[in-house]
Amino acid sequence: MARIPAMDAVVAVLAAEGVDVAFGCPGAAILPLYAAMARHGGIEHLTVRHEEGSTHMADGWARTTGRVGVAIGTSGPAGTNMVTGLYTAQADSIPIVCITGQAASTKLHQEAFQAVDIVSIAEPVTKWAVQVKEAAQAPWIFREAFRRARSGRPGPVLVDIPVDVASAEIEWDAEVDEPLPVPEVAPSPAAVERALDLLLAAERPLILAGGGVIGGGATDALRSVAEHLGVPVQVTLMGKGALPDDHELHAGMTGVQTTQRWANQSFLESDLVLAVGARFGDRHTGALDVYRGERRFVHVDIEPTQLGRVFGPDLGVVADARLFLEALLAAARTRSRPDLAAWRDRVASLRATLTRRDDQDTVPIKPARVFGEINDFYGPDTYFVTAIGLYQIWSGMYQRTYRPRHYQVCGQAGPLGWEIPAAIGVKKAVPGAEVVGVVGDYSFQFMVEELAVAAQYRVPFVLVMLNNEYLGLIRQAQADGFGINYQVDLHYDEFGSDNVKIMEAYGCAGRRITEPGDIRPALEWARKESERTQRPVLVEIMIEREANTARGPAIDAVIEPEPV
């Protein structure tokens, strides 16, 4: 075999694994990889302004494509800056590979410039963190990195490459190499039959679809099972889009924050929950004694250690979401269908009555009105990105979703600033799509520097900001738990930070809205302006400063009448 630079082999592996864009920040220790990318071509590169931004861009790209996203950084602080993105991807089961440069292997024990044990730092927030010790290992380590990122419960991998190792040549032939197989996990036939027994015996069953249904490509199988058996389907926050919101069997989202009131009531009246690809996160379950009640649970997950982690189910099944649902449907077709008409009618009745208003005309603007306008203006093919805080909670309450992978949210880790870089990743994944980031006034500035990336590379999207001039969720927690109002006020003059001028400083555009009737015209302007300039555009909406959301320690705390 011919001898080639080790990094040429790595770039060939990346391309063969379906990587057509990478997000990174070049530096001295990683330049051998960049030189290989320049020689190879075929992989677009966006130069980020902060390495955390590269991980969130790769994250958004991976959530949208279902493939493994790639982020690149150099040595030292580049790797440590990536840790938040690795944690975010791990928490939400998103497959990304982060590549870091490293000081020369002969200097690592001497505290060389920017030498840090990034493998040890990253291990708690990755599926695998590894340093390439020998150049000949490089292509095989990267093949294994992609296999691990995709297999089982997906997640992040970090590969660290000392500069001397990256600069070496190896023997390798791309023509005889290919991606490593990712094994599928089929369910036990006996477990499928037992799950079906429990489902058919229930009078008020629900299917609970988590992020694993979307990540596992199981949305079509979910719909087929639900329609065949006539069982209502609820989603978790990470599962939004697993079944269209306007489907007759859609039963909403239960929780203590991101929730619908009618969904909570439906859940409380259920007698069995078939949870597929869901983690039973605490913002979904609330108080476990209320959540569990007298109902029975079947928990299906590809990761064995998820079963029983929060509470012991009546039946646990280890399987791919898609393979389980397909097997369940095949088994159900050999049985008599249950008569669940009364239960479906009850869920439909709750959906029609336990609603929240989203049409208020008051000034200051109510948050619900913003999402009412978003729902009316944007079509079902729009991709939405949102992060953490009151605006995420309102989004979960009000925002409609119709397609899998079209509602992207950093659900578990909740890093502020995720939206802008994630929106860049989403837009690069589907360049022709309309992409909208729903942001808060505080989160907006955490990674605002990545606007420069979108402006430089002509990555257009719209940002809809809900600005209450506070750290809203923290202010609420202070008031409820401590009786204080301390260091959560963000405005220091008429507006605080002038977010419109910030946009303009990055070569983008923005408008500030104070009247509810101006929201739709502003969204129309933003769409046209973003298309015209091929850059991000901001619609900043000043909402009521006292805006709160109903929530409590248990899911029965949010079914009371909603104040308007």
Question: What key phrases describe this protein's structure?
Answer:
magnesium ion binding, 23 helices, tartronate-semialdehyde synthase activity, DHS-like_NAD/FAD-binding_dom, Rossmann fold, 564 residues, globular, TPP_enzyme_TPP-bd, alpha/beta, six-stranded parallel sheet
Account of the protein in words:
This protein has 564 residues and is of the alpha/beta class. The strands form four sheets. Strands 3-2-4-5-7-6 form a six-stranded parallel sheet. Strand 16 (435-440), helix 20 (451-456) and strand 17 form a beta-alpha-beta unit. The chain is globular.
Topology:
Blueprint: E1 3-5, H1 6-16, E2 21-24, H2 31-40, E3 44-47, H3 51-65, E4 69-73, H4 77-81, H5 83-92, E5 96-102, H6 118-122, E6 128-131, H7 138-150, E7 157-162, H8 163-166, E8 169-171, H9 189-201, E9 205-209, H10 211-215, H11 219-229, E10 233-235, H12 261-269, E11 272-276, H13 282-285, H14 288-292, E12 296-301, E13 315-318, H15 321-332, H16 341-353, H17 367-377, E14 383-386, H18 390-398, E15 407-409, H19 419-429, E16 435-440, H20 451-456, E17 462-467, H21 472-481, H22 499-505, E18 509-513, H23 519-533, E19 537-542
